Amino acid sequence: MNSLLRTSLTGLALISAAAASSANKPSSHREAPLITEMPKLDATDFYMFTSYEAGRSDFVTLIANYQPLQDPYGGPNYFTMDPEARYEIHVDRNGDAQPDMTFRFRFDNELRDIALPIGPAGNQKLVAVPLRNVAPITATDNSGLNETEWFTIELVQGNSVTKLRNADTGSIRFPKPYDYVGTKTFPDYAAYAARHVYNVQLPGGGVARVFAGQRKDPFVVNLGEAFDLINLNPLGPVNGEQDDLADANVTSLVLELPKSFLVAPGQPVIGAWTTASLPRKRMLSATPTFQSPTSEVGPFVQVSRLSSPLVNELVIGLKDKNLFNASKPMDDAQFADYVTHPTLPALIEVLFGVPAPTLFPRTDLVQVFITGVPGLTANGSFGEMLRLNTSIAPTPRNQQSNLGVLGGDLAGYPNGRRPGDDVVDMSLRVVMGVLLDPSVAPAGQLPYTDGAFVDASFTDDTFPYLRTPLPGAQ
Question: What was the pLDDT predicted at 164?
């Protein structure tokens, strides 16, 4: 085993125990009490990886998924984004746990207000239809849409704010695809959604790609049994349990950016996370309209935060979950006790009788969890974020290990995160000490799993990587 892999595996044991101390774990679906009240702002998963589409290895893909547990049949209004919110992807390129670049997505809804003539000749009235779609929609004809959702992207760098433009049309507004209502409304949804992949002009002449719209939720987990006191067999078999998200969609914000634009000279490791924010005060209107059902005033307040998977659900104590969602990586020292003395291994010990690791306090976890994996993703920053070493070449989809670094694939989690990385099984095995000395982790070599299998075959090998969403009706 080469020294980089050995160092990285050791780091994986540490960072995973800190960031995912549990036996069965969904990623960030409804992870804190407050965010359950505002599902449009709930980040479910965050991914960052060197693009493994053929010919795109000089690019990095970032994916921020929002709005968990979308039933495909969730009409008639489906899953628009919050027009008052800011959805942001932050990138730290110099290792200070503060954003050097922020990509800010804002959404708005434009009502076409389709009306039909109702009544006999001479006594007709034009009456507004109740639906968002009234006719089949194709890649070239969306006249059946009663409402169009648009988005803009701002690049924030310090005090500079640049509105990013469509590289082909020059527009700063990008149409967002309508959700996959069903096969009668969309005879070919894949072709329709593909028309909503845009080239984006970057400052300095570079070109990025962007997609914002509904996708099949790529995360795989035995969700229901996980929170019923881990009501399953954590020793397998792999692929022996159901994926409770198999019938769920999600809304994805996907950016592919040139490495040359993201990476600081001499520093190949970048850190990133996603947040969502709302104006401080929201007031309900007694006479709401389509465009103005509420009014919002005041500075923006962060209500959602996500980078590495599973942190808020299964590391942060219940009393601090809302605070973590409102916090910044640079302030993460306040949560150190949850890392040095993780509680969930002790719960697993009580539930299953397998001994938890006995290495306390976990000061080594603090170093790796907050600063990155030495020799792989450490970049001098201090704070919880997903980190990616951009100097490591991507692994083609058909060669990826779903156990990432633990499986010998240095291009996988925790070196960033790909949609096919099984962070649940990885975290299960390391939290109980698979890479620790048996004297402090006597049950560490057991093959823990949630039984719900995922690998890279669950995704596409081209941008935006996440698959076509499930239709609301066949």
Answer: 98
